[in-house]
Every structure is written in structure tokens, then in C-alpha cells.
Write a structure and sequence with these properties.
The complex is a heterodimer of chains A (about 280) and B (about 325). Chain A is an alpha/beta fold and about 280 residues long. In chain A, about 40% of the residues lie in helices and about 10% in strands. Chain A has helices at about 5-30, 35-40, 40-50, 75-85, 125-135, 155-170, 190, 200-205, 215-230, 265-275, and strands spanning about 65-70, 145-150, 175-180, 185, 185-190, 210-215, 235-240. In chain A, helix 6 links the parallel strand 2 (about 145-150) and strand 3 (about 175-180). Chain A starts with 6 loop residues before the first helix and ends with a helix. Chain B folds into two domains: about 10-170, Rossmann fold (3-Layer(aba) Sandwich); about 195-325, Rossmann fold (3-Layer(aba) Sandwich). A seven-stranded mixed β-sheet of chain B has the order 2-1-3-4-6-5-10, with helices on both faces. A five-stranded mixed β-sheet of chain B has the order 7-9-8-11-12, sandwiched between helices. In chain B, strand 5, helix 9 and strand 6 form a beta-alpha-beta unit. In chain B, helix 2 runs parallel beside helix 9 (about 150-160). Classes of the chains: A alpha/beta (about 280), B alpha/beta (about 325). The interface of A and B includes residues 130, 140 and 164 of A.
């Protein structure tokens, strides 16, 4: 059951997360800052309101599962886990460093609270389908599996193999989210390899589709609330976002898919985020 | 099986390895409700369907989607289950190969991949359905145990044994009925321990899979007709490989022939060669297998003969290897 947290409280948390993302990018020297900022509101709402997870008992069987299928957004995910109490805040300073638990893509065997190692795109939904089937078979009826994917990731055929199976097995315990930030490494998704109409595609695959503005916390809250109450079919949330959201220099810029933040840029980024 | 299975030895002698796999898995399913199955429209062909008939709610057929199959297997394992994943060997190691590597092996999950139609066993289907790369691929994935059993009895024992291995497991069996190597189930089988099937002092033939019986037949003929004493090692576990048995063979016989239904690059031969090379001990050595090319179409028996991995080919190669010059110094005791 989602916790009783207000949109205002979540908005404050999302700001804090964005600050932690840019700080961690600075510690890490460089990283996928654009795609981490775009999904920061979704990560915040999931970890501070919706997901049934417990840092004191990170492996409890009846928990909800979360898979960061767009594994390159570990820079957004690991600070979220730190803020939620799964890993020490101070440990973020080691991001990308030699023998760190945290690199560009998350390793489930090294990060408390991380349910799946990801990085190669198109792997999260199949693993999520397996988790959803496994939980259902073992009687964990209230546990949900949330899979956060990128929009460029939708090019991968294995996404659609997983989607077909999720609908075939009527997995209403699975919630997929597409972080529709509209940019991939080589440019706009619709120029590199178009995915639209992505909502119609998921509908045709048997999903209930919910669209939202993924950078508007009230709308994110509405979409996740609807998803959590759903019964009978898998869910796909199309979370319309802006890559780099919150930092003007990064917003909507292909070049900021991956980049480095020096100390001056960090000050500027934090000022932008605080003014949100 | 000593563990009390519902099928008897008489049946086992007439069943293909994959049929035995289906039956043993079903037995295991009764004992352990954590065991589940995954397949990709090959429930019948791989015989995992046998398990599905007994436990319909525990076999997940994902359709013709091997990447998804391996990802789903990883996800099931993440919830504490022990998934058996079955498809043809070529699809297990290549079509779903990255999922095997990054979802299963990297996360060290207890997914048991039982791949059928390995090697050249799907003869008439041609190279798209032959699989002469899987040992090389699976052996190079960290955390993976790799087994190629010689017959149905070994398959049964390996399927039981793999449940107790905490990490990922890959086993390759054939397509149809391959004559049994063992007469019954009364032999010791331990993952990682080669079986010495025939004692010999002139040369050791190390084989896996269907080639083991061929090697044994060759050894018997060579002994009877030519007085050549051949040791035959059944190297059913490719990883971790039995280094002790290999080195004992090198020291005792000084001549080693490996035989496998696999590309000669990266398989049993290279695994054995690596052990020998790193030991610093020299020996005469030859690998038999599929040369570095795509295999031709035809009945498996004809293909085995073509690539000299049948008894006749092994006999010829043993004779040639016995004529090969090796280092004269027989005394290695001073080299330690």
C-alpha cells in the first residue's frame, strides 16, 4: 500500500534527489546526468510513497521489486537508494571510483536494495516478467514489480518479447514505465529510430496505458495511484519528461546524455534546481 | 536411480537423454516445489513438457523468444526459485546468450540451462541448428558450471546434481537416441570429476558427450587388434575441469587425444590443452572435433565419421599420435 505522503513532500524530495544527482555526477567525474534527471520525479514518488520496500530488511519476500531497466541511470537510482536509507549517503562519493560498489550501471550483488543488475538495454522487462510470475506462483499477491525503461530502449526487440509475455500471462502485478525524454545518444528518438505511437503499441500488446507528465509530481502521483489500483492486465505508464530536467544547461540537450560536471557547473546546476 | 525414481533402468536403456531429462525433472519437481521450468516453444522437443504436464502452473512457455526466456528465468530465480530453462543449444548459447551472461551468470543465479540438440545431433537441419560453439561460450562465462553428459544415465545424475549447485549451470544433450555408455546407474558421478572408463598406459583419450562411447569402442578395438593400451576418460564436466585426472593421464601415458562434438577452438580440447600447457609438462597432443568451419548437412552418424569423432576416426588418430615424437626425457621427478 502506498504511504501517506503529500505531493509537496515528494516535490521537496525530488529537488533533494536532483541535487544529489548533480553532486554525484561531480564525484563520479562524469555520467548519464540527462537521463537520470529526467526520471528523478518518478524515482522519488516510487521510493518515498509507492514501493513497499524496507532498508532494514531489503530482501523481505513480500516486498515490491524495482528494476532500473535503463541501467545507465544508476546516477539517479543510487542517490535515490541512499536517500531511502539502503546505502550510506557518504558512499556516493565513491561513484565510478576503483572498486566502488557503484558504476555507470548498477550491480545488484553490490548494492543493497537493488533488485537487478542492469545496463544492457532490453533486459529489465523480461526479468520483471520472471519476477512477477515467480511472486504470483509463490502466493505474494500484493507484491508489484516496477520496471523503468528508457524510450530509446524501446528499440530493443526483447522489450516486446517481454511485453508479449506480460500480457499473455495477465501479469497485473507488473508496472512498466517508459521515461519518454525523447532523446537518445545519436539524437531525437523520432529521428534515430521512431517509437511513436508508443502508447498505441503497448495498448495493442494488451497493456493498460497511462500517460503523464513525468516532471510534474502531481501528475506522476496520479499515474502511479491509478497503476497501483489496477487489476487484470499489465500497466504501462508513458512518463513524458524532458532530458536533463531541472538544470537549464542540460535540459533537452542531446549532448547532455552523458557528461562531466566541474565545481562551477555544479554550483550553477544546484542553483537551477533550487529555483524549481 | 538410487534416489527412487518412478522409471526403471530397462526404460532408461531405451530412452534418449532428453527424455530422461524430462522424467527426472518431473521427479525432482515432486520433491522440491522451488523447481520451475521455462521454455521457448520447445516444450515437446526438449522434453521439459513432461514436467509441464505434471505441474502446469510451474512451466512457463514464453513462445519463440529466447532472450525473454533467459530473462524470465533470471527473474524467477530472483524470487528464490530454481528455474530449469530448455531450448536448443544454439539458441540457448547465442540467441539468448547475452541474457545468460548478464542476467544469469553475472548475477550468479541458480538457473539450470538444459540445452538439447547440441553438437551435430540435429544433423539434417544444417548449421543454423547445429551447435559447435556452446562449450566455448559457456566456459568463458564466470560462475557457470558446464556439463556434457555421455548418456542418459549421466544426464539423470547431472540433472539431480545441478540442483545443489548454488549458481548457474549449463548442460548440453543431444537430439535423439544415442546408445547408452553405461549399463546401469551403478557408477559414481560427481560434477567436476572425470570417470576413468578404461585403463591404459600408451595413450589417453579424453572425450565428452556422444564421443565418449566412441572412444571406449575405439579403445577396445585397439587393444584387441593392435595391442594398444588406451585410457579413456569421460570428461563430462568441462568446467570446472578435472585437472588432476588430466595431469595423471599426462604423467602416466604421455600422449593425449581429446574428442568432442564441438569446434576444436574453445572446447574440451582447448580446456585440456590449457591445463597441460600451464603444468609445464610436455606430451604428444591432438584435438579431434569439428574443424573451424560450418558443418555439412547429413545424418549425425555420417557427420561424426566425416569429422573423425567416431570410433574409426579415433582409432586412426590414436595410431598417428602414437607415432608422434615426444621429448625423450621420461623422468619428470626432478622438475618439481
Amino acid at each position: 500500500m502506498p504511504k501517506n505522503v503529500t505531493v509537496e513532500e515528494l516535490k521537496a524530495k525530488a529537488k533533494e534527489l536532483r541535487v544529489n544527482i548533480v553532486k554525484t555526477t561531480n564525484y563520479a567525474k562524469s555520467g548519464h546526468v540527462g537521463g537520470s534527471l529526467s526520471c528523478a520525479d518518478m524515482l522519488t514518488a516510487l521510493y518515498f510513497k509507492f514501493l513497499n520496500v524496507d532498508p532494514a530488511d531489503p530482501k523481505k519476500m513480500d516486498r515490491d521489486r524495482f528494476i532500473l531497466s535503463k541501467g545507465h541511470a544508476a546516477l539517479g537510482y543510487v542517490p535515490t537508494l541512499a536517500m531511502a536509507g539502503f546505502v550510506p549517503m557518504d558512499s556516493l562519493k565513491s561513484f565510478n571510483h576503483y572498486e566502488s560498489c557503484y558504476g555507470i550501471h548498477p550491480d545488484s550483488r553490490k548494492i543493497s536494495g537493488c533488485d537487478a543488475s542492469t545496463g544492457s538495454l532490453g533486459h529489465g522487462l523480461p526479468m520483471g516478467v520472471g519476477m512477477a510470475l515467480g511472486l504470483r506462483y509463490q502466493g505474494y499477491k500484493d507484491s508489484k514489480v516496477v520496471v523503468l525503461m528508457g524510450d530509446g530502449e524501446q528499440n530493443e526487440g526483447s522489450v516486446w518479447e517481454g511485453a508479449m509475455a506480460a500480457a499473455h500471462y495477465k501479469l497485473d502485478n507488473i508496472i512498466t514505465i517508459v521515461d519518454r525524454n525523447k532523446l537518445m545518444i545519436d539524437g531525437p528518438t523520432e529521428q534515430v529510430m521512431g517509437i511513436d505511437p508508443i502508447d498505441k503499441k503497448y495498448e495493442a500488446f494488451g497493456f493498460k496505458v497511462i500517460s503523464c507528465n513525468g516532471n510534474d509530481m502531481a501528475d506522476v502521483d496520479r499515474a502511479l495511484t491509478e497503476a497501483w489500483e489496477n487489476k487484470g492486465q499489465p500497466i504501462c505508464i508513458i512518463s513524458n519528461t524532458e532530458k536533463g530536467f531541472g538544470v537549464k544547461r542540460f535540459q533537452g540537450k542531446v549532448a547532455w546524455h552523458y557528461g562531466a560536471i566541474d565545481s562551477d557547473m555544479l554550483k550553477e546546476a544546484i542553483a537551477d534546481i533550487e529555483a524549481l | 536411480m538410487a534416489e527412487g525414481t518412478a522409471w526403471n533402468v530397462y526404460d532408461a536403456l531405451k530412452m534418449a537423454s532428453k527424455e530422461i531429462y524430462g522424467k527426472v525433472l518431473t521427479e525432482l519437481g515432486k520433491e522440491n516445489d522451488k523447481i520451475v521450468g521455462v521454455t521457448a516453444d520447445l516444450a515437446k522437443s526438449t522434453n521439459i513438457g513432461n514436467f509441464g504436464e505434471a505441474f502446469p502452473e510451474r512451466l512457463f512457455n514464453v513462445g519463440i523468444a529466447e532472450q525473454n526466456m533467459m530473462g524470465v528465468a533470471a527473474g524467477l530465480a530472483k524470487t528464490g526459485l530454481i528455474p530449469f530453462a530448455s531450448t536448443f543449444a544454439i539458441f540457448a548459447c547465442l540467441r539468448g546468450g547475452e541474457q545468460v551472461r548478464s542476467d544469469i551468470a553475472y548475477q550468479n543465479l541458480p538457473v539450470k540451462i538444459i540445452a538439447t540438440h547440441g553438437g551435430l545431433s540435429f544433423g539434417a537441419s544444417g548449421s543454423t541448428h547445429h551447435c559447435t560453439e556452446d562449450i566455448a561460450i559457456m566456459r568463458s562465462m564466470a560462475n557457470m558450471t558446464v556439463v556434457v553428459p555421455a548418456d542418459g544415465f549421466e544426464t539423470a545424475k547431472a540433472v539431480r546434481a545441478c540442483v545443489n549447485i548454488p549458481g548457474p549451470f549449463y548442460m548440453r544433450v543431444g537430439r535423439g537416441f544415442e546408445p547408452p555408455l553405461h549399463e546401469d546407474e551403478n557408477f559414481d558421478f560427481e560434477i567436476g570429476k572425470a570417470i576413468n572408463l578404461h585403463e591404459g598406459k600408451d595413450i589417453t583419450v579424453i572425450a565428452c558427450g556422444v564421443c565418449v562411447l566412441q572412444a571406449l569402442d575405439a579403445a577396445k578395438v585397439l587393444e584387441k587388434e593392435s595391442g594398444i593400451s588406451v585410457r579413456v576418460l569421460d570428461m563430462h564436466t568441462l568446467k570446472p575441469i578435472d585437472e588432476e585426472a588430466i595431469m595423471k593421464a599426462v604423467l602416466d601415458t604421455r600422449r593425449i587425444l581429446t574428442v568432442e562434438e564441438h569446434n576444436t577452438i574453445g572446447g574440451l580440447g582447448d580446456a585440456v590443452a590449457s591445463v597441460i600447457a600451464q603444468s609445464g609438462k610436455g606430451c604428444a597432443f591432438t584435438k579431434l572435433g569439428i574443424p573451424d568451419e560450418y558443418s555439412v548437412i547429413g545424418p549425425p552418424e555420417d557427420l561424426y565419421a566425416r569429422y573423425k569423432i567416431d570410433a574409426t576416426g579415433i582409432e586412426e588418430t590414436v595410431k598417428a599420435l602414437l607415432g608422434k615424437e615426444i621429448e625423450a626425457d621420461e623422468d619428470w621427478s626432478d622438475e618439481d
